[in-house]
């Protein structure tokens, strides 16, 4: 089984700990993971803002970079949704023919992390240990486009030491929405503030999601409010074990503490 | 006194920002949408075949739209055969002219109205007022909007932005100027408010000689029109006057009665969360004989007003499936905070954000801002009873705004120019695309950001201020994932695609490979 990590541009640049955590979880489960360096961005920011033509070379690049891999795993619901839902449409219109088929093929082999763990590996207990109270925010594209359902929750429920608390209004968007966050900043901020209040009300130490872009908005909003709740990606919780986090060798444990641990 | 106008409203972000600051408005909307949201979910969950009904609704609409000319002609024949008169209106101005002339021909200067989105869309009340004809809205919420010299802010609940106290104040101060006044001691109890409206409206129903309506559905095979409502005011307006004029969008036609079976299940559960609609009025043509019930004179004004342009757009045309249930408004987190007025048209919320730019174009700043009035969370698509993929159409229309391109405008294929004000964004998107096509450049940028990370400001100037006004910036890490991988796994385990620029997509594989090798070699 040839597995490639599609780390996403946001995680690569801003949250490398999530990339290391994804790798750590997969390798702990015996999966050999490759990281093709020619990968870059799925094109979602451009596409969702209306620049479809700017995404065409990125769509083509994605299919070429991940050619030959059985599975492409990414720690992002929205990037996985972009690839699966929109890459085939973009390619059908822009290229057609064999290239479009290749894009559709790559799209069908792309999985968000929790999907890959639960559906392909058939694992819900990854042997993680995370002694913290956590609430889970299902991000929109994972929830509605991919239909992740309870996969992330099932993974969290099997983490030892973790107490999962319900987030009221969990299914409501956090207000990030890519360029929406700056184009409609007032509404985005109002949605973010409501989400942050909901999170704070749970008493959780950390809010978990499968998308770093949404967590950047939620975490930035929480931090501005002076909240103690930390954003943490699902992969980082799943990578944490009794011996600390496998992601960077630091003695992990503090909620979200693995996010930006220096090397 | 015929209510405000959406003309000259600011772009969505400004109007929405003002609405967000209005705490009373936000309270009213949160309460109202939250309640109906939960009720709809329960009503829908009761039907085990909801997904099948939804697919059937979408399929019926799609098939009808594909053969729209055929079904409209069948409808015209059937309505005419039943004693009605069919008029065709290409745009709002023509529809208003037709209706005004029809009312004038009766010699009347007053009409009663059934709640209708089409007449809101064309601004009929204002047109009638200019011709000296007063139109009385008879739907409770429309009455509140009309008395308050206000604009509707919701498809189903036009006064959703008002609470009981505000409604009582409007009734007490305004009802007397339009007819029977409200009692002096009117309280804000719903039953008392409804009774005041009932007594006020009863006088209008009994006096009116002309009724004006829209329709939820038109059945092509028999020429039957269908109005679905909850208060009985529609039944009054459709049966008591001598003349009935119905203004209906051409996309409202369905082929057969059988098709209604699907929509009369989908619509009430999606809109009011009811199992069955309370007042479903159906009529075919005009009452011919003496003593027969209903209007003697029936006119159907079929309204295009941009619909055939939308129909020519293979992605955008799905918006014409809409049955105006407003489930997408009720579930939309943006609508809940921005309110309906910010959308600047009779059609607020997610459906308005895809319908208005198709009906009116994307020329004005407001109309060009509507496709961006969404975080693309997809909740609207999830609840839509006719499966309109609203996020897909939003993104499609965003492309029209920023890139321009081919579109049909007033029946003609036209090349639309990109909207103004996107030059900097377009340049940034192109630059980003170039960087993403050259991962070595991406890595260089990441390294620069990492090295300078202690120097990054906490608050950004320019467009970035919109981010840092309410959120902290993420801290840039000391090392990107890519650099970590190169450092830790770079020797050999990078796999067969270990070099960043090794793809053949630029058609210069060899050249980029050499560049990539040089770059990679320098790292190790």
Automatic annotation (TrEMBL), chain A:
InterPro entries: Cys_rich_dom (IPR004017). One of its GO terms (cellular component) is cytosol. One of its GO terms (molecular function) is oxidoreductase activity. Coiled coil: none annotated. It comes from the Bacteria. Residues 3-83, 134-218 form the Cysteine-rich domain. Residues 243-263 are annotated as: Disordered. PANTHER family: LACTATE UTILIZATION PROTEIN A, UNCHARACTERIZED PROTEIN YKGE. This is L-lactate dehydrogenase complex protein LldE. It comes from Streptomyces pini. The lineage of its organism: Bacteria, Bacillati, Actinomycetota, Actinomycetes, Kitasatosporales.
Automatic annotation (TrEMBL), chain B:
One of its GO terms (molecular function) is 4 iron, 4 sulfur cluster binding. It holds the Pfam family LUD_dom. Residues 480-490, 511-524 have a biased composition (Basic and acidic residues). Residues 450-459 have a biased composition (Basic residues). GO terms for biological process: lactate metabolic process. Residues 397-487 form the Lactate utilization protein B C-terminal domain. Residues 319-388 form the 4Fe-4S ferredoxin-type domain. Gene3D superfamilies: Alpha-helical ferredoxin, NagB/RpiA/CoA transferase-like. Keywords: 4Fe-4S, Electron transport, Iron, Iron-sulfur, Metal-binding, Repeat, Transport. Residues 72-303 form the LUD domain. Residues 447-524 are annotated as: Disordered. PANTHER family: LACTATE UTILIZATION PROTEIN B (PTHR47153). This is L-lactate dehydrogenase complex protein LldF. It comes from Streptomyces pini.
């Amino acid at each position: 089984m040839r597995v490639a990590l599609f780390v996403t541009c946001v995680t690569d640049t801003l949250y490398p700990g999530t990339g290391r955590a994804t790798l750590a979880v997969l390798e702990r489960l015996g999966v050999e993971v490759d990281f093709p360096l020619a990968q870059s961005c799925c094109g979602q920011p451009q596409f969702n803002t209306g620049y479809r033509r700017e995404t065409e070379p990125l769509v083509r690049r994605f299919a070429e970079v991940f050619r030959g891999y059985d599975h492409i795993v990414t720690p992002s619901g929205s990037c996985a949704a972009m690839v699966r839902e929109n890459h085939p449409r973009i390619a059908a219109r822009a290229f057609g023919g064999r290239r479009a088929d290749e894009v559709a093929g790559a799209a069908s082999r792309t999985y968000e992390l929790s999907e890959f763990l639960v559906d392909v590996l058939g694992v819900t207990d990854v042997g993680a240990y995370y002694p913290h109270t956590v609430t889970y925010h299902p991000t929109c594209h994972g929830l509605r486009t991919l239909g992740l359902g309870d996969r992330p929750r099932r993974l969290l429920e099997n983490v030892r030491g973790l107490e999962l608390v319900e987030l009221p209004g969990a299914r409501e968007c956090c207000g990030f929405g890519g360029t929406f966050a700056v184009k409609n900043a007032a509404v985005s901020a109002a949605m973010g503030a409501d989400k942050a209040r909901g999170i704070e009300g749970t008493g959780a130490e950390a809010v978990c999601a499968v998308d770093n872009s949404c967590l950047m908005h939620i975490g930035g909003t929480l931090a501005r409010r002076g909240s103690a709740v930390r954003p943490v990606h699902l992969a980082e919780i799943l990578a944490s074990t009794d011996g600390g986090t496998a992601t960077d060798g630091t003695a992990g444990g503090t909620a979200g503490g693995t996010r930006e641990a220096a090397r | 006194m015929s209510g405000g106008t959406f003309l000259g409203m600011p772009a969505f972000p400004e109007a929405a920002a003002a609405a967000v600051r209005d705490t009373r408005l936000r309270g009213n909307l949160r309460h109202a949408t939250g309640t109906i949201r939960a009720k709809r979910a329960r009503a829908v969950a009761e039907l085990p075949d909801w997904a099948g009904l939804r697919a059937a609704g979408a399929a019926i609409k799609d098939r009808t739209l594909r053969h729209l000319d055929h079904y409209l002609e069948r409808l015209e024949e059937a309505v005419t055969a039943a004693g009605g008169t069919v008029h065709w209106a290409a745009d709002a101005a023509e529809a208003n002219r037709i209706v005004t002339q029809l009312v004038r021909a009766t010699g009347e200067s007053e009409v009663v109205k059934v709640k209708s989105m089409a007449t809101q869309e064309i601004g009929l009340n204002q047109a009638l007022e200019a011709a000296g004809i007063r139109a009385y809205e008879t739907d409770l919420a429309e009455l509140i909007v009309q008395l308050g010299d206000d604009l509707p802010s919701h498809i189903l609940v036009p006064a959703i932005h008002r609470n009981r106290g505000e409604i009582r104040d409007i009734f007490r101060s305004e009802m007397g100027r339009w007819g029977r006044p409200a009692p002096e001691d009117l309280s804000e109890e719903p039953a008392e408010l409804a009774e005041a409206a009932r007594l006020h409206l009863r006088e209008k129903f009994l006096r009116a000689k002309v009724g004006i309506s829209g329709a939820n559905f038109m059945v092509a095979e028999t020429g039957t029109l269908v109005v679905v409502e909850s208060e009985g005011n529609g039944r009054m307006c459709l049966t008591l006057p001598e003349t009935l004029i119905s203004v209906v969008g051409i996309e409202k036609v369905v082929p057969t009665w059988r098709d209604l079976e699907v929509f009369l299940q989908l619509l009430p559960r999606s809109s009011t969360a009811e199992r069955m609609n309370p007042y479903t009025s159906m009529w075919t043509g005009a009452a011919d004989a003496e003593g027969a019930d209903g209007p003697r004179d029936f006119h159907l004004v079929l309204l295009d007003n941009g619909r055939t342009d939308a129909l020519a757009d293979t992605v955008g045309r799905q918006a014409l499936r809409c049955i105006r249930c407003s489930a997408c408004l009720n579930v939309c987190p943006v609508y809940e905070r921005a309110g309906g007025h910010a959308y600047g048209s009779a059609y607020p919320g997610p459906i308005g954000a895809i319908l208005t730019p198709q009906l009116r174009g994307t020329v004005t700043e407001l109309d060009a801002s509507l496709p961006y009035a969404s975080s693309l969370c997809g909740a609207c698509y999830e609840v839509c009873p006719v499966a309109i993929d609203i996020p897909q159409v939003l993104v499609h229309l965003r492309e029209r705004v920023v890139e321009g391109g081919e579109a049909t405008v007033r029946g003609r294929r036209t090349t639309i120019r990109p909207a103004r004000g996107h030059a900097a964004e377009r340049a940034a998107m192109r630059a980003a695309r170039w960087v993403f096509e050259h991962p070595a450049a991406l890595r260089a940028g990441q390294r620069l950001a990492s090295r300078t990370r202690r120097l990054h400001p906490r608050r950004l100037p320019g467009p970035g201020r919109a981010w840092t006004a309410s959120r902290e910036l993420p801290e840039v890490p000391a090392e990107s994932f890519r650099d970590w991988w190169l450092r830790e796994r770079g020797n050999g385990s990078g796999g067969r695609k270990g070099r960043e620029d090794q793809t053949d997509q630029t058609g210069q594989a060899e050249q980029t490979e050499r560049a990539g090798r040089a770059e990679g070699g320098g790292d190790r």
